[in-house]
Specification:
Elements: H1 20-45, E1 52-59, E2 70-73, E3 76-86, E4 92-99, E5 111-116, E6 122-127, E7 140-148, H2 153-170, H3 176-191, H4 197-202, H5 205-237, H6 242-312
Parallel strand pairs: 1-7, 2-6, 5-7
Antiparallel strand pairs: 1-4, 2-3, 3-4, 5-6
């Protein structure tokens, strides 16, 4: 083939874009506007342009507190740390800006805490128990209560070390627990033996056997007692037992008592009649007493009359009066 000359491989020059510099300036200006708008929106969302109220928290250690961290109330952020500074006395002043729309949650009785947990960062919290108290004024200074969970770590570690040492002492070869476990195993083996719990209780088989023999004799004696009780029951409560004879005797006694009751009723009638006779005799006795009184009165009159006659009759010598 005949040789052909190589074609030029360089691309052709692109046509010029009209007003390229102006378009670039417009694009740059739009980008700056977008960035500025985003920054302003972020600042507005962060509450930079909202009216705020200053709150000063006083503490002795600001470890974990940083500018920009939130102060929460019931889990909601209502304030933000703007500055942390030292006071003239060497303490720490935490300056917090609280939005005015949320400032009504803070009262004069509110309590503020600075908590640093094992997991997570430090948190500033506000607690208000009585919402009817006066509102917290602007620029108020309040002490903050600190709670550091990591401060208890040394004590917890020391307690854990002590527990581990006690566990090591308990599980040692010559520990009382191991000896106790060995004794329990021996006791369990004795419980599984022929004598069972009796062997564990007495410590030897001879005493256990003696107790079993005594129990057997006791059972035999109880069986004999049961037989005697059955015979006694038959003799006492059987058809020809003592109870039946006693019942017949009671029937006879009831009959005798009935006869005696009839006799007593007759005696009562006789006594009633005797009482009537006695009443009559008592009346007659009263009449005899009256008659006797009248006779005695007449005798006294006769005696006085005779005395008067003897007095008036001087020749009489015999003054005796014989009463018939």
């Amino acid at each position: 083939m005949p040789d052909t000359p190589l074609q030029d491989s360089e691309p052709a020059a692109a046509p010029a874009v009209p007003h390229l510099a102006a378009k670039a300036r417009l694009l740059l200006l739009f980008t700056v506007l977008m960035i500025g708008t985003a920054v302003l929106y972020l600042l507005h969302a962060r509450g930079v342009f909202e009216p705020t109220q200053r709150l000063v928290l006083l503490t002795d250690d600001s470890e974990g507190v940083s500018v920009g961290m939130d102060m929460t109330f019931s889990g909601f952020p209502i304030g933000r740390v703007r500055e942390v500074e030292l006071s003239p006395t060497g303490g720490v002043r935490i300056l917090i800006d609280v939005a005015e729309k949320d400032a009504h949650w803070l009262r004069t009785s509110s309590v503020f805490t600075l908590v640093r947990g094992l997991v997570g960062g430090t948190q500033i919290r506000a607690f208000t128990g009585v919402l009817t108290d006066p509102r917290l004024p602007d620029g108020a200074e309040r002490p903050v209560l600190r709670g550091d969970a990591t401060a208890e770590l040394p004590r917890v570690i020391a307690a854990a070390r002590e527990v581990l040492e006690n566990l090591t002492a308990v599980t040692a070869q010559d520990a009382p627990l191991r000896r106790t476990i060995g004794n329990i195993e021996a006791t369990t083996a004795k419980l599984k033996g022929p004598q069972g719990a009796l062997g564990v209780l007495f410590g030897n088989e001879q005493d256990a056997r003696k107790l079993l023999a005594a129990l057997e004799r006791t059972n035999a004696l109880l069986a004999r007692v049961d037989g005697m009780a059955a015979r006694a029951d038959t003799q006492v409560f059987g058809p020809d037992g003592v109870v039946r004879e006693a019942r017949a005797t009671l029937v006879q006694l009831n009959g005798m008592l009935a006869d005696t009751r009839g006799s007593l009723q007759k005696v009562d009638a006789v006594l009633v009649e005797a009482q009537a006779v006695g009443a009559n005799v008592k009346g007659a006795t009263q009449d005899l007493g009256t008659l006797r009184g009248e006779v005695e009165a007449n005798l006294r009159k006769i005696d006085s009359l005779l005395n008067e006659i003897n007095r008036k009759w001087p020749f009489a010598r015999d003054t005796e009066i014989r009463v018939p």
